[in-house]
Design brief:
Elements (H helix, E strand, L loop, with lengths): L2 E9 L4 H13 L3 E11 L4 E9 L1
Length: 56
């Protein structure tokens, strides 16, 4: 079992629930998320920057 630090750019979604689902789906591609946070928002590009620690 190894831990990794992951940074993702997620497109804005219509609702908060859809955004959370998109984040969780993308994180699971890298492993099991231990913790994550939206650390930045790029309004011009309509993206949320997410940093996470995952176990794979």
């Amino acid at each position: 079992m190894t831990t990794q630090f992951v940074t993702l750019e997620i497109d804005f979604q219509e609702t908060l629930a859809q955004l959370l689902q998109a984040i969780e789906t993308e994180l699971r591609l890298s492993g099991e998320p231990l913790r994550w946070a939206i650390t930045s928002v790029d309004l011009a590009r309509q993206k949320a920057i997410v940093e996470a620690v995952v176990v794979s």
